[in-house]
Amino acid sequence: MSTRDVARPVLKWAGGKTQLLESILQRLPQTIATYREPFLGGGAVFFALAVAGRFQRAVLSDRNPELVGVYRAIQQDVDGLIARLTKFVSNEEEFYRVRATAPRSLVGRAARTIYLNKTGYNGLYRVNRSGGFNVPFGRYAKPKICDELNLRRVHAVLDGVELVVDDFENQCRLAQAGDAVYLDPPYMPLSKTAHFTSYDRHSFGLPEHQRLGDTFRQLAERGVCAVLSNSDTPETRQLYAGFDLEFPQVTRSINSKGSARGPVSEILVSNVPSRRRSKRAVSAK
To answer: What share of the chain is helix, strand, coil (3-state, %, to 5)?
Structure first.
């Protein structure tokens, strides 16, 4: 078995796509010229497509430079990254010490991000308005800070992949017929008290979601296959009315109240009808 067969996401990511992966893959073409993922996150869809050999070229992007930096470090200097990660220990004092640092090197910043992701509360990536990481210590018993085998597998998969810090609209504008785009934005909040959308210092509110909806329609008009996931809200139903919609139930555990965690409805949007259309009636409110 080659290293390319078993590479998996390096980072834990709120809203990861493991539960929706099969549905997303069914909606994407079997053969893709250039695959673009403008909201990179944990990259689960990219890894699955890479293992299956379904694209000729891939461009992965996000407007969060720390996130893109993790993948660049794995791609460019996986040995140096592994050496850094093996020096970390998991305890509260070390966590806050590392959180307060600001490494200058690519590998140093990537190691910090991975460490905080593996040892911070719930695998959450959240920053304040100044861009400072502000997630508390997670108190895990034995977090795997350095998964050397997977890092080397990911290094192999990232060979030739373009990694870009950019806004989603700029990247989607480059997509052409024959390409495919998967869009996994910070989700539309389900309530007024839901604020887990601060993945960088810029907010992603309703105006950004509306801009994303316009971008999605433009991709369809240009003949670019596009798939998008989001929370199931009246706003998202309205934004994507007229497209092929599915409403899968997924389990999310990001809520700070344990009693509020559990199955929630999400929305999966495609500009190409899926092989398994949802039986649930679609309504735009």
So the answer is: 40, 15, 45
**Arithmetic mean of pLDDT over the chain:** 88
| Cβ(128)–Cβ(134) below 8 Å | yes
Cα–Cα distances in Å, from 107 out to 104, 123, 159? 9, 20, 17
Confirm if 111 and 80 have CB atoms less than 8 A apart: no
How many C-beta atoms lie closer than 10 Å to residue 224's C-beta? Answer: 22
Q: How far apart are CA 179 and CA 223, in angstroms?
A: 9
Instruction: Quote the pTM value.
Output: 0.88
Spell out the alpha helix ranges (H) of 100-192. 106-119, 148-157, 168-173
pLDDT in tens, 231-281: 999 999 999 999 999 999 988 655 444 444 568 899 999 998 655 444 343
The answer to whether 237 touches 284, Cβ cutoff 8 Å, is yes
CA 174, 222, 169: angle at the middle one, nearest 5? 40
Q: What is the DSSP string of 192-206?
A: TT--TT-SSSS---H
Please name which of 52, 81, 32 lies closest in space to residue 226, comparing C-alpha atoms: 32
The SS3 assignment for 117 reads: helix
Residue type, 174: L
